[in-house]
Amino acid sequence: MAAVAARRRTGGGERRRQGSARRNAGPLEARGGRLWAACFVSAALVAAAGGLLAWSSRSAEDGVAEVLARRGEPLLDKFVEVPCSGDYDGYRSTWGKDRVSPGSTGEGSSHVQLEGVEPGCTSLRPYLRADALWGKVLFSGDPSLAKLPPANLQSSDVGCTPRRCGRGVSDVVITREEAERIRRVAERGLSLGGSDGGASILDLHSGALSLGKQFVNLYRYFGDKIQGIFTEEDFALYRDVRQRIQQKIAQAFGISSSSMYLTKPTFFSRINSTEAKTTHDEYWHPHIDKVTYGSFDYTSLLYLSDYAEDFGGGRFVFMDAGSNKTIEPQAGRVSFFTSGSENLHRVEKVHWGTRYAITISFTCNPDHGIGDPVLM
After folding, report:
1. Which of 40, 71, 138, 142 could be bridged to 279 by S-S, CB 3.0 to 4.6 A?
2. Is cis: bond before 162, omega within 30 of 0?
3. Catalytic residue status for 355
4. What is the Cβ-side half-sphere exposure of residue 303, based on CA atoms within 13 angstroms?
5. CA-based R_g, the chain, Å
6. CA-based nearest residue to 35, from 94, 130, 137, 110
7. Which pTM does this prediction carry?
8. 312-337 burial, b if ≥16 CB within 10 A, otherwise e?
9. C-alpha span between 156 and 61 (Å, rounded)
10. Residues 95-152: pLDDT tens digits?
11. Catalytic residue among 242, 270, 346, 355
């Protein structure tokens, strides 16, 4: 804490602030921005309702905490088993299918994609919450509150569906050098855009990139310029890292890695202390991944920067009854957990510096799997 206080006193010299976002968005993005503003209001109302439920179900207070993983203290493997929730059996998702037919989102609905890159309310949802990004406390699951698509049953593969639940941390899956290389990929991609607020995302799968107060598809928006930003080696490293994390999760939970499928959203996040400009900049609210994303069964995070060295605040917090359990990020550290309500969690506000991470999510349902990104 003394180091953090000293860093704050030294002022802006050690704080890495992000540059201003690109202002000249095209006509499509400008029209989308107006729709997104309306969407944020609906999302906030839905999330606020869920928030009351989340807090009433937990007695933990911020002042009571146990550190599961400290920065600078290497962990070979640490796993804490917790009782499974009932979220995995016959879970009814709020997501619907990849495309929503006219009328299914309520009056005046249009045909939109759930990719986070096209105008329309539903395009917000893939980035509302993961690693506590983009959202309020809980998504209520009531389609009538925000005119969302009707719930669809999402059955999971029996061989992968969590029967043993918990959370794990490991510092030996990915090396620091590999994490630094992956971070440079994120930095190059995010240099093309960035949120006006403190939280930005880059999704190499769908192409979604924060730009001002909205998202754009970087592959379409920047076209051939992408060839000078990313390389085939970048994407090969990305795939290798994903595979090793997938194997670690399978080993920890006693399942076959071949029964797990990468799912969306899987993305880079960059968080700094810039004041939130819109609701989707408010990354610090508690949430449950399985409630937010019906397809999620396992969530993982690879940290790409160091707590108390690159940024202050920004710790990952599991919110258990009676106490919080925190993870202090460091480059190369992997945390992973089952995505149900047994692992309610949040991220602390970042007070200074910049926090980088990548969220990699897995489903047991092949219908909701996605492929690794490819250089277009």
Report:
1. 40
2. no
3. yes
4. 28
5. 19
6. 110
7. 0.71
8. bbbbbbbbbeeebbbbbbbbbbbbbb
9. 34
10. 333 322 222 222 232 222 323 333 333 333 344 344 434 333 232 333 332 332 333 3
11. 355
